[in-house]
Design goal:
It contains twelve helices and 14 strands. It has helices spanning 14-24, 37-42, 77-82, 84-89, 91-97, 103-108, 111-116, 123-130, 148-151, 224-230, 237-250, 261-282, and strands spanning 7-9, 28-31, 50-53, 63-64, 68-72, 134-139, 142-147, 152-154, 157-158, 165-172, 177-184, 191-202, 205-214, 221-222. It has three domains: 7-53, Uridine Diphospho-n-acetylenolpyruvylglucosamine Reductase, domain 2 (2-Layer Sandwich), CATH 3.30.43.10; 63-172, Uridine Diphospho-n-acetylenolpyruvylglucosamine Reductase, domain 3 (2-Layer Sandwich), CATH 3.30.465.10; 177-282, 2-Layer Sandwich (Enolase-like, domain 1), CATH 3.30.390.50. Bound molecules: flavin-adenine dinucleotide.
C-alpha cells in the first residue's frame, strides 16, 4: 500500500518543528526514524496530512554519561549499541537494543520514536520504567519533564501533548546486575513477553529491585510488588516465585497472533524468572 498524500516538512531547528505542530495541530506529526510511523501510514492506520521530518533538526542526538545519563531523542538504536561508554555505564541499554527488530530497523529507529510511539510492543518503554527514566518534552510553553512511569496512558496514548516534541530521555546511572530478556516468535519480531530487571546486591541480600515488562498489557508494566518480593531476600527460588506471582497480578495480556492469554502468562513467568536469575548472577 502507499500512504495517503501528505505535505512534507524538513525544519532545521526545534522551534521550526513546534511552529508547524502549532499551525496544524492533530493533522501534523513528527517523524524520527519512520520505522513505526511509515508502516502505519502505508497501512492507512495513520493519516498524517503534514509530516515533519526531524532528521535535520539540530541538538537532538548524542549520549552524555555521568551520574545521570542523557540520550538525545534522535539517537538511533544502532548508536546506542555502538556506544562504548553507555555499554559500560548502563549495559542493559545495549542488551535491550540488540533485541529490537534487525540491524536495518536499528540503523533508523530512534530512542525518542520508540518511547514516544506508545506501542505496547516497543521494548524501550518497559526498559525506561525499569530505569525510572525521565522524558524531556518541549512545546510552545517551554520544557517539562515526565517520569516514564507516568507517561503511558493506553495503547498509543501518552502524556505528550500534540504540540510537544520529546527531546531526550535521562536516568540515573544504574547500579547492580541487569538483564533484558525477550521471547519472540522469530528474529525481528516484537516481544511475546520481555522483562527488564535491575538488582542491587548487598552481601548475599537483594538491596533493591526494579522490574518492568513489555507487551503484556496496553502499557508497559512496572511492578512495585515484584520488586518488593525480591528486596531483602537472597533471591532464592521462593523469592523468584513470589516476584513472578506479583508480576502476574499486574499484567493484563490479551489474545492475539502471539497466542492466547494463558500462553502469554506462562511465557511472562518463564521470561521474568530467567531475567531475575541472570540479573542476580551479574549483581
Ligand atoms: C520490521 C520491524 C520490526 C520491529 N521490531 C521492533 C521490536 O522488536 N521492538 C521495538 O521496540 N520496536 C520494533 N520496531 C519499531 C522500531 O524500533 C521503530 O523504529 C520505533 O518503534 C520507532 O522509532 P522511530 O524513530 O522509527 O519513530 P517514528 O516511526 O518516526 O515515529 C513513531 C511515532 O513516534 C512519534 N515520534 C517520534 N519521535 C518523536 C519525538 N522525538 N517526539 C515526539 N513524538 C515522536 C511519531 O510522530 C510517531 O507517532 C520494529 C519495526 C519494524 C519495521
Amino acid at each position: 500500500m502507499i500512504p495517503a498524500a501528505f505535505e512534507y516538512y524538513r525544519p532545521t531547528d526545534l522551534s521550526g518543528v513546534i511552529a508547524i505542530l502549532q499551525e496544524h495541530g492533530d493533522d501534523a506529526r513528527v517523524m524520527a526514524g519512520g520505522h513505526s510511523l511509515i508502516p502505519m501510514m502505508k497501512l492507512r492506520m495513520a493519516e498524517v496530512p503534514h509530516l515533519i521530518d526531524m532528521q535535520d533538526v539540530a541538538g537532538l542526538t548524542g549520549i552524555t554519561i555521568g551520574d545521570t545519563i542523557t540520550i538525545g531523542a534522535m539517537t538511533t538504536q544502532a548508536e546506542i549499541i555502538d556506544h562504548a561508554g553507555l555499554a559500560e555505564a548502563a549495559p542493559i541499554m545495549r542488551e535491550a537494543a540488540l533485541q529490537i527488530a534487525d540491524p536495518q530497523v536499528r540503523y533508523m529507529g530512534t530512542v525518542g520514536g520508540n518511547v514516544a510511539n506508545g506501542d505496547p510492543g516497543n521494548d524501550m518503554p518497559g526498559l525506561m520504567q525499569c530505569l525510572d527514566a525521565e522524558f524531556t518534552l518541549v512545546g510552545p510553553d517551554g520544557e517539562r519533564s515526565v517520569k516514564a512511569r507516568d507517561f503511558y496512558e493506553a495503547a498509543y496514548m501518552t502524556d505528550r501533548e500534540d504540540e510537544e516534541v520529546l527531546t531526550a530521555v535521562s536516568f540515573a546511572k544504574p547500579a547492580g546486575g541487569y538483564a533484558y530478556e525477550k521471547q519472540k516468535r522469530k528474529i525481528g519480531d516484537y516481544a511475546t513477553a520481555a522483562a527488564a530487571v535491575q538488582l542491587v546486591k548487598d552481601g548475599g541480600t537483594c538491596a533493591s529491585a526494579s522490574i518492568a515488562m513489555t507487551n503484556l498489557s496496553d502499557t508497559p508494566i512496572y511492578s512495585d510488588a515484584a520488586g518488593a518480593a525480591l528486596t531483602g531476600t537472597s533471591v532464592d527460588a521462593d523469592a523468584v516465585k513470589a516476584a513472578v506471582a506479583a508480576m502476574l497480578g499486574d499484567i493484563d495480556p490479551v489474545e492475539d497472533n502471539r497466542g492466547p492469554v494463558a500462553f502469554k502468562r506462562h511465557v511472562a513467568g518463564v521470561i521474568l524468572a530467567r531475567a531475575i536469575e541472570r540479573a542476580w548472577s551479574r549483581a
